[in-house]
């Protein structure tokens, strides 16, 4: 009989484990940052300043809405939820990105990568869900003003806010759980942050990614239906506003900020998704990075600014606070 000493047995055991489970990947490398390392001091300073501005404007708007009882109306509650989601999404990216700029190696743990992918996807889809609920609120306020308070009660508002948050969180919990069960044959992510679709692409050839694809297509159908619902509400809004001067004024005051946020969000998200699936890899890495983080750059800062300056009650509240501070 052949006998193995203890060292040979350990070698055979390790080889067996490697053969049985190719995907013992515990660390991912984020290689998207490599080309910007020569300017990391400047990028770090600008990013930190920008992130502080995002925190300041979103938190300020949240505090104003919470403390002012006159703003405890459905539209402003939804705006508060919108700002909270902006903080949620940017917190999933900026602190890690700032840390990577100061680090010699840009790595993230397997669990941390899945968590970041979950935050990025749920943040984007939660934004669209909130925009859909806000469109419904404006539809009721302008097209059904007599029924607005009965339809948009506190209970209904709570249900809609829960829907806008729980739907993406549940969907992407399933997606991330499916991804965590895949065997991976690679650990290099050519981006600044983790994306579920990229992790799935790192799966070994024999891995079953069909459930992931089914969930992805189901998610696309759900959120495309959100888009059609928003289009339907705006068709009714525009048709109603054409015949009434008062409704036109209300539309310009309350719907324009929502419309700007919606168009901006759809542009940056669709552009990023189309590039991620079909875009050329020949573009400079810095341009690819900018395309990838547009949805973390523009909406989180632009939304509180637009709503803060456009909505009369919030603008007046901000002016009152500035007047008090000057004294």
TrEMBL record:
Has UniProt tagged this entry with the keyword DNA repair? no
GO MF annotations, alphabetized: G protein-coupled receptor activity; odorant binding; olfactory receptor activity
The protein's predominant localisation is: membrane
Location comes to: Cell membrane
Residue ranges crossing the lipid bilayer per the database entry: 9-28, 48-67, 74-94, 114-136, 157-178, 214-235, 256-278, 290-309
Q: Which InterPro entries match?
A: GPCR1_Superfamily_Member, GPCR_Rhodpsn, GPCR_Rhodpsn_7TM, Olfact_rcpt
Coiled-coil regions, chain positions: none
Query: Which keywords accompany this UniProt record?
Result: Cell membrane, Disulfide bond, G-protein coupled receptor, Glycoprotein, Membrane, Olfaction, Receptor, Sensory transduction, Transducer, Transmembrane, Transmembrane helix
Q: Which PROSITE patterns match?
A: G_PROTEIN_RECEP_F1_1 (PS00237), G_PROTEIN_RECEP_F1_2 (PS50262)
Protein topology in the membrane: Multi-pass membrane protein
Q: Give the source species.
A: Lates calcarifer (Barramundi)
- Positions of the G-protein coupled receptors family 1 profile domain: 57-307
Record protein name field: Olfactory receptor 142-like
Acyltransferase as a keyword of this entry, yes or no, is no
Q: Which GO terms describe its cellular component?
A: plasma membrane
Q: Which domain of life, per UniProt?
A: Eukaryota
